[in-house]
Each structure stands twice: as structure tokens, then as C-alpha cells.
Amino acid sequence: MKFPAHRQQLYHLLRQPSAPDLAAAALYIAQEEYPTLEIDAYLNALDTMAFEVEERLPANPYPLQVLQAINHYLYEDLGFVGNTQCYYDPRNSFLNDVIDRRRGIPISLSLVYMEIARRLAFPMVGINFPGHLLIRPDREDMSFYVDPFCKGELLFAQDCRDRITQVFGHPLDLRPEFFQVLSPRQFLVRMLTNLKQIYLNDNQLEKCLDICEQILLVDPTCYSELRDRGILYYHVGRWSEAQQDLQDYLAQAPAAKHISLVRKLLDQMNGSF
């Protein structure tokens, strides 16, 4: 299978036996928009951030000291902020832009935070919380969460209940699925899905196609993207590719939603040849 150079790098990174480097993967994704982007420069920038935080820590810091040091450095010293004014700017989803502009959305700011913490030997994981993504220390003995979009705010159980009430408009019991840990692949798919929705809302269908292809590169079992790519191919007039994707989707997910739409599109294309 032939890919552009940055997708080849992403493909090989994701197929290593160890967990993929999220920052490197996110930067390869950003090369779709910025082909000359220098990956090592931004990985070095994250190294430098972590080094400067480490210099502020005592020899054996306890967890809250680590979080306080990261928070002060990122949000007070560097001025990182959640981009509430231009939330749907695609630059909020590209790690290089987030580092350069010091603003982003929950998932991209979480990635910066997690990468600094990892370099400090304090690994954190993404949490698929409703509303927007949170992170938490990758330790079973710690039951709090961090919101990198809100300047690293610490959230405990009652805070999470309050957030759920805000999201759904009424009180709701906390469910285990609200706190599902995202694997590195799931994290990347969520980041790409956000970007795809931004492009879709702006009717940039060719860019949506590129995102679908990247999602399928990250997770080949994400059959809904096979469907979406087929529909996008249909709308841009690439019908032979649309037919192939939609037929493959029917074969892989015969009981899924939107089957009637898929069959209708296939019938329309078959009747036009």
C-alpha cells in the first residue's frame, strides 16, 4: 500500500510492538496540513518544557507538586489557554500550532500536558468524559482528574457530577463509561474525528477524505469511516472508489446503522453505469 511520506511514518509508528509515541503520531498527522513540518523540532520543544518543569521540582516530588508545577509553567509562565473564542479553528487540532500559538481544545491541550508529564516519569492517560476530554494519573491509587482546557483544574467525584449536569442539563449518575481510558489509538481517532467534523462543517470534502484515510490508518476496524469515506467519494464524483468502500462497509457491518442510505447510494451509482 502506497502512502505519502508522512503517512508512511505514521503507519510504521503505529505498527511497532510498543505503545506509539502520541506526540510523534500527532505531528505526522499535522504534516498532512504542513508537509515541511520538522517533527524533531517539536519533540525537542516538549523535551525542553519538561526539563524546565523538572528544574522547579524537589528531588522526590509528590503527585500534586508535579501537577502544580506543570500548571504554573504551562498556564502562568507560557500562557497556554483553551481557545474558547475560536474553538473550531482547525489549528487547535494540530500539535505544532498548539505549541506555537499556546492555545488549543481539550484534546490537544491534554496531549501537551500528558507529554510533559510522561517526560517527568508521571504518566497520565486520556479519559473519554462527556463534554470534553479529561486526563488522570495512570495510577489506580489516584481518583482525581485534570482538565487541561481549564488551566489544569483538579476534579473530584462531585466536580464530575457537576460537569455531567452541565452537559446533559439535569443530574445524572456517574457511569463507568464516562471514565473510560482511551488507548493511544483511540486518542488519535478522537483527535482526527474532531478535525474531520470541523472540515465537514466548512464543506472541505477533500480534507475530510484525507482525515478518513488517516483514521483508517490508525484503526482499520473503524468501519464507520469506511462508510463515511465512501459517501465522501460519492459527493466528490469518485464513484468507483465510493462503490468499493460502500460495498466493503456492507460486508463488514451488515447490521449497522445507515445501511438503507448506503444501499440507496450504491443502487444510484449502479444504475448510472
Q: What's the structural blueprint in terms of helices and strands?
A:
Elements: H1 5-14, H2 22-30, H3 39-54, H4 63-77, E1 81-82, H5 95-101, E2 103-104, H6 106-119, E3 124-127, E4 134-137, E5 145-147, E6 153-155, H7 157-168, H8 184-201, H9 205-218, H10 223-235, H11 239-252, H12 259-272
Helix pairs in contact: 1-2, 2-8, 3-4, 3-6, 8-9, 9-10, 10-11, 11-12
Notes on the protein architecture:
By secondary structure, the protein is mostly helical. The chain has two domains: 5-179, C8orf32 fold (Roll), CATH 3.10.620; 221-272, no CATH class. Helix content is 57%, strand content 7%. It is built from twelve helices and six strands. The protein has helices spanning 5-14, 22-30, 39-54, 63-77, 95-101, 106-119, 157-168, 184-201, 205-218, 223-235, 239-252, 259-272; strands at residues 81-82, 103-104, 124-127, 134-137, 145-147, 153-155. A hairpin with a 5-residue loop joins strand 5 and strand 6 (153-155). Helix 3 crosses helix 4 (63-77). It is globular. It starts with a helix and ends with a helix.
Q: Rough shape?
A: globular
Helix percentage: 55-70%
Radius of gyration: 20 Å
Number of strands: 6
Strand order of the largest sheet: 1-2
CATH class of the largest domain: Alpha Beta
Q: Which runs of at least 5 residues are low in confidence (pLDDT < 50)?
A: none
CATH structural architecture of the largest domain: Roll
Mean pLDDT: 94
Number of helices in the DSSP assignment? 12
